[in-house]
Amino acid sequence: MTQGKLSLANKASDGSPSGQALVTPAPPSYEEATAGTSAPCYNDAEMLREFTWDDRNIRRIFIRKVYSILMIQLMVTLAIVAIFTFCDPVKDYIQTNPGWYWASYAVFFVTYLTLSCCSAPRRQFPWNLILLAIFTLSLSYMTGMLSSFYNTKSVVMCLGITAAVCLLVTALSFQTKIDVTSYQGVFLTFCLVMFISGMALIIVRPFQYVPWLESIYAILGAILFTMFLALDTQLLMGNKRYTLSPEEYVFATLNIYLDIIYIFSFLLQIFGRSHD
What we know:
The protein is mainly alpha-helical. It has helices spanning 2-15, 30-33, 44-51, 56-86, 88-96, 99-117, 119-123, 127-148, 152-175, 184-204, 211-237, 249-271. Helix 4 runs parallel beside helix 8 (127-148).
């Protein structure tokens, strides 16, 4: 037994270039193996590549969450519009106190910028839902006050038209093979046309009332935000060129809700009749 061990040691020493026995190197320590590396960091694009929207369950949950929150927002807005339209004491109070409108506009503007430009507040629960609730209440007040200056039948008719347009656009966005998200140049051009028309309306209106210019502006606005509704719906679907991250359910709800409110506001300017 001893001779066999010596013969193996001699063979190992003869085969090595330096005449020494071969020794298996020790594995590196954890500090040596992890030196110069850092923890993985994922941004939105990598998150989308990781999910790749192949898991239909994730997409269904995301869409269900967005439309559940959207239904609550629309119900709150509809209730406030109904109170401001059908209740005469409330209508008289808000029309004689325009300061509340400007206060709600300031709250709307601040919350909108916070949710749109800051990713941390709109992703952190429950602050994202709190900010979204404040945004919904402020915009609902503004919409209700705008509706109070129009005839009740006109408001109901515009609500019906808005509901029909939104349902039709949503159904077409889910069924069509046209990728609306790839037509960003068209949206940019339309926004520029709207901006120029708005500036012209601001300049001309103090000198002379031009009703047809306001009608053209309202028609362009209704068409533009109908297109934005189709765009935001396809961003929500996730099977087009550009998609939203599954974490951006508040941002998706914010965009679709804002599109619907603007469509109703522009339709009210087109078809609505003001009180005598």
